[in-house]
Amino acid sequence: MWVEWLRGRERDAAEASRGRFLFMPAIVAMELLSGVVDRASERIVEGLIEPFALRKRLVVPDESDYRRAGRALSDLRLPASSKSNDALIAVAARRIGAEIWTKNMKDFQPLCGHFKIPLIAAEEITRGSG
Description:
With 130 residues, this protein is mainly alpha-helical. The chain has a single domain, classed as 3-Layer(aba) Sandwich (Rossmann fold), CATH 3.40.50.1010. The protein is built from 8 helices and 4 strands. The chain has helices spanning 2-6, 11-16, 26-34, 39-54, 63-76, 80-96, 105-115, 122-128; strands at 24-25, 58-59, 100-102, 119-121. The longest helix is centred in the C-terminal third of the chain and has 17 residues, at 80-96.
């Protein structure tokens, strides 16, 4: 949802997040920065990431998180080449007791089921904020 928010398409989700403690997995910061194409977009993305870093709300995977993610990918028979980032996001959410908000329900459903993490569809968030 971060990408959609940066594109101005998730204003309702931003409103729904008010009053909540938000965290950002460091892997999401990496994914966002990988889409930077110029100085202007870099400033925008860094401006989104920086408040999380300053408040110690960037969730950085440790060695045990990588092991948990690998075991989950094995259990679910998911390819690490395309699902490792999602698995690390799920592990990070489980570690801090967070729910995952996403437009990517298909990819996150098996991982959230495996880790017993609440998964919230973007459409549900935007419907509930109005």
